[in-house]
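Still learning. Show one?

>
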Amino acid sequence: MGIRHWLAAGRRLQRNQGGGVLVLFALLTPILMGLSAAAIEYASLVKRRTELQRAADSASIAGVNQFKLANADDAAAISVATSMVQAQARNAGGGTPQVTARVLGNHSGVEVSVAETVPLTFGKLLNMPSIDISVRSTAKLTGTTRLCLLALDPLSAGAFHLESAARITASDCSLYSNSLSPAGIQGDNAAVAKALSICTAGGYTGSSTIFTPPPAKNCPPLRDPLIDKRGPIPGSCIHLGFFVDPKKLIEGIDDPAYGLNVVSGNVTLEPGTYCGGLHITKGAQVTLQSGIYIIKDGPLVVDKNASLTGVNTAFYFTGVRGGLLFDEKSTISLTAPKDGPMSGLLFFEDRLSPPDLLSLLPLGGKGKAKPAPGGFIARREYRIISDNARTLLGTIYLPVGRLIIDAKKPVADHSAYTVIIARMINLYDGPDLILNARYGSTDVPVPNGVGPSSADTQLTQ
C-alpha cells in the first residue's frame, strides 16, 4: 500500500512539472523572440554604420585629391566629396544621408561628416522608433603629386580617347578631362590607362580592365592652368641657304605643303622665325641651338629617316597651315628651355591662329589620321607617329589643337617629366605613352599651375 502510494505521487509530480515547463516556455517565448529581433536589428545598424564610414572615407580622399590638380578650389573639393557619399551611401529605400564637407587649413585636408536617421522595428516597442547614426572622416595631404594630362574641350565625346592597344602610364600623376560629355573619356579595343588618379567632368566609356583606377565622374572642370601664358612675337623670317638642302632634287621633289624651309643635310639651326614652316627630311641630322623656334604659316615636319635633336629648345606655332608631324621613320629628342619666356614649355600654339579648314597637314607614312571622336574638328593637328621619340621633356601646351599619338613604340619614356595640355588628346594603334613626373632629376622647370601642386593622400580619422 505504501509503495503504490509513492508511485502515484511520483506520477502526479511528473504531470505537474510538464505543465509548468510549458507555461514557463510560453511566458519566455516573446522575450526570446524580442532578444533575437534586437540582435538582428543591432547587426543591421552596425552594418549600416560601416557602410557610411566607408563612404565617408572614400569621399574625404576624393575631395582632398582635388587639390592635387591644377586650380582646384574649395567648392570643387566639397562638391566631389558630397557626390561621392551620395553615390556610395544611398540606402535600400532610395534615400540619401545628410552630408557635410569642409576644407581644412590651406587646402591641406577635407573633413566629411555623414548622418542618417535609421527607423527601428524592435525599438518601437520601447518607445524608440528610430536612431541617429553619424560618422566622420578626415583626409590630409602629405608629400607631392602632379597633374600631367588635361584635355580642355568642354563638350566633345572622346576629348581624351585611347584605342587599339594604346597605353598611357602616369604612375605618379593625374589624368583629367574637362568634357561634360557622358563619354568625355573613352577607352576601346584593349587600350590601357594607368595613373595616380583619373577624373572626368562628364562620364567615361570602356571596360573596367582599361582604367586603373576607374575614372571619377562629374568632377568640376579645371580652369586652363596656362590660360594667361602669352607666346613670343614673331621676328624677321630666317632664310636658309642652299646648302642645307643638298638632296633637293634627290629622292623626290620637296612638297611645299610640308614646309617651305627644307633641310636634308647635317646642319645646326638657330632660333628664330621660320616662315612657311620647317621640313626636316631625307636622312637629315639636325641639331638645334638653345632658344625659341617660331613656326609661322606652315607645319613642322620630320620624316624619311631624319632626326631632330635640341636641348633647352621650344617651338611656338602661329599663323595658317600650322601643325606638327613626327613621321614613323624619324628620331626626336627634345628638352624645353630652363629659363626665359617659354621656360618649361616644349610646344605652344597661338590660340588666335585661324583654323586649318583645308586640313593641309601632311599625310605622313601612315596616311591621314583618324577623325576625332564625336566629329570634333580641331584648328590644327599635332601628330607623333615616330617610333623613336623617347625624349620629350617639358610641357606640351596646345589649347586649341588636337594631339594625336599613334606610334608603335614607347613615347617620352626617357623624359624626366612630360605634361600634356591640349584641346583634344587621342591615342591610336598601340603607342606606349609614358608620362613621368621626376621633377627633381632635371633643371627644366614646370610651368606654374601644373606639375607638383599638392600632396599625397592620408586618412587621419
Observations:
- Helices lie at 2-65, 74-88.
- The mean pLDDT is 85.
- The longest helix spans residues 2-65.
- The first strand starts at residue 98 and ends at 104.
